[in-house]
Amino acid sequence: xxxxxSSAVNRIDAKGRVSVPAHFRTVAQKRGYSDLYALRAxxxxxxxxxxxxxxxxxxxxxxxxxxxxxxxxxxxxxCHGDGAFLKLDQDGRITVSDFLREHTGITTEVAFVGRGTxxxxxxxxxxxxxxxxVRARLLKLRQAAARPHGDPE
Length: 153
Description:
single chain; alpha+beta; Chemotaxis protein chec
């Protein structure tokens, strides 16, 4: 399987490093990633992390925009200015830098969450709150879809 699936919480060591979950490292290795590209998520306090293909996807979208319009400039600022490469050491750890901490609120632990073609890094309690909100939204959709048309809530 070459998808980022499941979740894990790992502690940051005394040198400021955190181990990327073994399954995620395996996926990265299968995909040939030597570096990980991390981007501050636009709408949540998390980092989207993947390989160069994640950056390529953003750059392909930017190329579709008129370079003279603000949208192209904003998108470039977002994916280049709010992005960084993370180096995996030989033991599968990354350094938890200020870049990671400032946007996420990460302090002593990192929650890793698979998102298919990429994964996210969260502060664990923020991820828990977000996960509860996601489940509530999905449950509401399911309940609405199960009601016969025209029936009130």
